[in-house]
Recover the amino acids of this structure.
């Protein structure tokens, strides 16, 4: 069968039932991505005879005689298509995994399509950006705006900190040539398919693999009978003891539907899948529990009866992983009783999947020296390496873990979910092994945001000053305790400490159930509790007749106030590096009062309301977040940066490049990063807790300043000019009117700062950050909404977000992080929910799980407080996680003020809002 791809003729015979995406990737067209394989996300979009199609559902047999154009066929990094150039100029991507398909579809649009752009782009979803930058990119490409009067585009808009420097990989991302985990050829690879448990709780009596083993092409079948490792946790932290050791690579007892029972390692994915279906497993079903309240009640089935406090499980006999019961200031019940006004309510948040477009996956092999190498989609390569070494009883230096560009994470890739299996399979077979999850795997076998039940009691005096605050929180960690402890404690931290109150009490527990595991998710628990606390604060404002902005001003911590959770003393490592909450409140309130001219939908059914919420977050994880960095310069003036942090849309590669360019007075084009690799530097905790700037970036800054001093001192020795009067430039150093090139500078540095590389000597310096002190950042979200009382539809008329980000390192990129966080928050607040039926996920594909599309996300006005943090590099704070946290309560508060009925559960879907406005219909409904 002949067809054409990007102008090249191909003669190939598709396999039976093969889709076009797989055929194209078989011919090394890795620019065609796999996001869902169901026609829902558009990451695989290509043109067939000029028409955009989802190649994952386009039968390969139908391509005979046709012409296919992928994003790589539209343009090259050196010769971009106008749409590709516009995506570069307008920062139209973050992780970039959706970008290839997005550009392919957009390339077919005309100016007439722009008024209906959300509908025309409905087949392409983005999890990262919030769509504003994508709208701008498409609009400016399809109907170009007049050129900038100075002829300056985004790629030329600046070089250092404080400017919108273009991401280093931008041209590769928009042409599909930037390699993600599976965008590389792997010769002689075997493929892994996992057989999951059909039961929520069962003991495996026996496994019969004889029929599966006899299938030609099957190389190995792994089960608990032939794989033995220590217990561990899939959750990864700097200190591995922060999570319970309750997991095995293969466990003879399964505790959730979909849990690994066996893994087939075979020559092709199809053979592996067919063989898995031939495995016969005899189960002894065990009682299961799915409700977290029931799980801790007497007589409930016990999931991990043999775990002890030494395993970091507080009370296994009650399914309780972790508890927190503390308070200060006296008896909270007495304080509430003495308060002039009190509020009481219970709020619930649902399961949310990360929905990053690149699924989890790993490729493992052994190199020429016998060292285990794992290329994987992870946020934490060093932590994965160390745990693999422990599980496999290998020295850490015998394991290398690295990532390509990672297609989104949002906390979901702070887990070790595929690397262990790929590594075991490679060591067992001696061949490269590939384990790539499907979208259904992703939505049933990985982790979700922790569902929580949060009860809040607030007391206040007549002036609205808080007198008592009580939070009672129950977290469902699912079948395993990965991140259960950290999420529980963090959920009840800044959500409570943001308010001054003389009496506080927290009662929190995280419990096992037979639901699929929960894990790390953007906000790390804060969003769930903030939803409750900020809703309660709004109810207090209503009852007291006080403006909600004013109520926060009266009660929120001011600069220097102690940050108290449930103890009378503040956390010793958390300080005000700067303070911007007051500015954020003013900025958000002013914007909301100005309005934006949005028109309320016509008709008497629509009710309008405004709502707001605040949040605070520490700028890095507690108890240490480490980064080691090297910065070296060669004789050509190229700076080589070794940093362990991964790039997955967080923008760290851009910010690290800017830091080096600013500190060393060079151009970003002269900065080369080696990142996301355990061979790059001694250690990096990883890209989570928004640490890319405040931890790794600070280490990059320190290394850059150290190298600058080294080069300046060398120039001073060569010329006799005082170091104060030496100027570093992109092409060398100027001292006393003389330009000294980098070759001479490197020769002049002391031996301790000169290292010989294969391409010649380099001057080198190191930097480190240990995360011993943390600062705090603030966010304020405000909405104006209209609610249809007949359908429950919520129309967002205005969205405003104000952030205290310290020095904004890259304004356009930071704006995109805020917009993306708000968009993800809107999704979790209004649309997204993993539904379970007795522990079995019902929402297994994007088709039944509502990831927001372009039409769902409004324009968000983004404002930044003018602060400079004492701890962060150049005064920066973290700003990837925090914008998510106040979104749901701000929406809930706006809906309440529109309807005069308060939502208590997320998502606030149309059916739930309708029930709030039609309680009589709900009461009459048959049960």
């Amino acid at each position: 069968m002949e067809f054409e791809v990007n102008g090249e003729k191909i003669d190939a015979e598709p396999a039976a039932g093969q889709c076009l995406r797989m055929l194209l990737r078989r011919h090394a067209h890795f620019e065609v991505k796999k996001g869902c394989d169901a026609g829902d996300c558009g990451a695989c979009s290509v043109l067939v005879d000029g028409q955009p199609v989802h190649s994952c559902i386009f039968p390969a047999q139908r391509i005979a005689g046709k012409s296919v154009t992928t994003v790589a066929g539209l343009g090259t990094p050196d010769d971009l298509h106008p749409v590709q150039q516009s995506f570069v100029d307008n920062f139209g991507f973050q992780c970039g995994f959706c970008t290839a398909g997005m550009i392919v579809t957009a390339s077919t649009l005309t100016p007439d399509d722009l008024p209906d752009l959300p509908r025309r782009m409905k087949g392409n979803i983005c999890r990262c950006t919030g769509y504003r930058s994508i709208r701008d990119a498409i609009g400016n490409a399809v109907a170009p705006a007049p050129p900038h009067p100075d002829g300056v585009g985004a790629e030329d808009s600046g070089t250092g900190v404080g400017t919108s420097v273009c991401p280093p990989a931008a041209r590769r991302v928009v042409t599909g040539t930037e390699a993600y985990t599976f965008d590389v050829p792997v010769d002689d690879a075997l493929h892994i398919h996992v057989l999951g448990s059909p039961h929520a709780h069962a003991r495996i009596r026996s496994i019969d693999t004889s029929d599966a083993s006899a299938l030609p092409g099957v190389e190995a079948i792994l089960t608990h009978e032939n794989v033995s490792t220590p217990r561990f946790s899939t959750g990864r932290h700097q200190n591995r003891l922060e999570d319970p050791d309750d997991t095995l690579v293969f466990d003879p007892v399964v505790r959730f539907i979909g849990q690994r029972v066996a893994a087939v390692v075979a020559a092709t994915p199809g053979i592996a899948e067919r063989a898995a279906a031939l495995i016969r497993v005899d189960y002894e079903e065990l009682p299961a529990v799915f409700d977290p309240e029931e799980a801790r009640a007497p007589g409930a089935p016990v999931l991990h009866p043999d775990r002890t406090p030494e395993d970091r499980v507080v009370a296994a006999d009650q399914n309780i992983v972790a508890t927190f019961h503390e308070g200060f200031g006296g008896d909270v019940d007495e304080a509430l009783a003495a308060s002039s006004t009190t509020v009481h309510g219970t709020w619930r948040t649902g399961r949310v999947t990360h929905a990053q477009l690149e699924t989890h996956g790993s490729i493992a092999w052994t190199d020429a020296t016998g060292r285990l190498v794992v290329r994987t989609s992870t946020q934490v390569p060093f932590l994965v390496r160390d745990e693999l070494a422990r599980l496999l009883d290998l020295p850490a230096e015998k394991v290398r873990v690295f990532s390509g560009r990672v297609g989104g994470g949002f906390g979901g890739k702070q887990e070790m979910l595929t690397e262990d299996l790929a590594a075991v399979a490679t060591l067992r077979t001696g061949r490269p092994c590939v384990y790539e999850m499907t979208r259904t795997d992703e939505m049933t076998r990985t982790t979700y945001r922790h569902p929580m039940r949060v009860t809040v009691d607030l007391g206040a005096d007549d002036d609205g000053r808080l007198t008592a605050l009580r939070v009672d929180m129950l977290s469902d960690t699912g079948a395993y305790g990965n991140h259960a402890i950290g999420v529980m404690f963090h959920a009840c931290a800044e959500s409570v400490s943001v308010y001054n109150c003389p009496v506080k009490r927290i009662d929190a527990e995280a419990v096992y159930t037979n639901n699929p595991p929960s894990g790390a998710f953007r906000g790390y628990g804060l969003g769930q509790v903030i939803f409750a606390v900020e809703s309660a604060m709004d109810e207090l404002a209503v009852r007291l007749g006080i403006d909600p902005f004013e109520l926060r001003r009266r009660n929120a911590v001011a600069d220097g106030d102690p940050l108290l959770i449930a103890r009378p003393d503040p956390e010793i490592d958390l300080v005000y590096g700067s303070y911007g909450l007051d500015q954020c409140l003013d900025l958000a309130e002013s914007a909301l009062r100005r309005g934006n001219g949005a028109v309320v939908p016509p008709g008497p059914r629509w009710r309008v309301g405004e709502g707001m919420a605040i949040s605070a977050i520490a700028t890095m994880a507690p108890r240490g977040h480490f980064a080691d960095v090297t910065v070296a310069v060669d004789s050509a003036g190229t700076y080589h940066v070794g940093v362990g942090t991964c790039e997955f849309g967080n923008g760290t590669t851009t910010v690290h490049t800017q830091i080096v360019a600013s500190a060393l007075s060079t151009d970003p084009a002269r900065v080369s990063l080696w990142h996301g690799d355990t061979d790059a530097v001694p250690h990096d905790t990883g890209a989570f807790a928004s640490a890319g700037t405040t931890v790794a970036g600070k280490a990059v800054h320190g290394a850059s300043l150290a190298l600058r001093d080294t080069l300046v001192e060398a120039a001073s020795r060569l010329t006799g000019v005082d170091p104060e009067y030496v100027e570093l430039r992109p092409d060398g150093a100027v001292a006393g009117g003389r330009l000294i090139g980098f070759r001479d500078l490197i020769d002049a540095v002391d031996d301790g700062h000169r290292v010989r590389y294969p391409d010649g000597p380099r001057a080198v310096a190191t930097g480190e950050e240990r995360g011993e002190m943390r600062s705090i950042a603030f966010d304020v979200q405000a909405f104006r909404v209209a609610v249809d009382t007949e359908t429950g539809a919520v129309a967002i008329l205005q969205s405003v977000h104000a952030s205290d980000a310290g020095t904004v390192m890259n304004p356009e990129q930071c704006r995109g992080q805020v917009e993306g966080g708000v968009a993800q928050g809107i999704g979790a607040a209004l649309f997204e929910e993993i539904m379970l039926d007795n522990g079995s996920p019902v929402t297994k594909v994007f088709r039944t799980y509502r990831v927001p599309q372009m039409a769902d996300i409004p324009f968000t006005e983004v404002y930044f407080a003018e602060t400079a943090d004492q701890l962060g590099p150049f005064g920066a704070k973290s700003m990837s996680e925090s914008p998510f946290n106040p979104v749901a309560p701000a929406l809930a508060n706006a809906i309440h003020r529109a309807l005069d009925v308060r939502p208590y559960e997320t998502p606030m879907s149309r059916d739930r809002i309708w029930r709030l406005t039609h309680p009589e219909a709900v009461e009459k409904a048959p049960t």
The two ends are 58 Å apart (CA to CA). Confidence is low (pLDDT under 50) at residues 149-153. The chain has 26 helices and 36 strands. The first helix runs from residue 20 to 26.
